[in-house]
Amino acid sequence: MIMTNNNLVLTGYEGEQLIRKVLRDIYKQPNLQQLDWMVKWDDKNYYIIEAKVREMYTPPPFFGTGLDIRQIELRIELLKDLGLDTILMVLIGEDLYIRKLSELESLPPQDKFDTGNRIRIYNINRFEKITNFRERLK
Known about the structure:
Elements: E1 2-4, E2 7-9, H1 12-26, E3 37-41, E4 45-53, E5 64-68, H2 69-82, E6 85-92, E7 95-100, H3 101-105, E8 112-114, E9 119-123, E10 128-130
Parallel strand pairs: 4-6
Antiparallel strand pairs: 1-2, 3-4, 5-9, 6-7, 7-10, 8-9
C-alpha cells in the first residue's frame, strides 16, 4: 500500500490480488485466469497472448519451453467454450518464439513432455523463431 495524504491507497497489484481473493473465497470461482493480452489478429480472430520470459529448457529430451499444465488446461477450456485460442510468445535471450497453444498441444508425443513440476515442455524447433526482433521495434 502507498500512503498519500495520510490515506491508504492500494497499488494496482495489491488491488488485483484482493479482488482475486474475493472471487475465489466469496464467490467460489476456482477457475480464475489472468490473461496477459487479447488481440484481434489480422482483423479476423481474437487471440489470447501468453507472454513469457524464460531460459531454454535443456535436454533430455530436447531444447524447449512451456507452460504450467493447469494454465494449459484453463486456456484449452477457453478455446472449447469461447473459440479463443492462445498464442504463446516466449522471449529466450534475444530470440522470440511463437506458436498457437492448440498447435502445440496437437504435437506428437515425441515433441512434448511433462516435468515432475507439472510443466509441459514443447520442442523449441516446433516454434516460429524470430531473431533480431528488437531492431523492428524502432
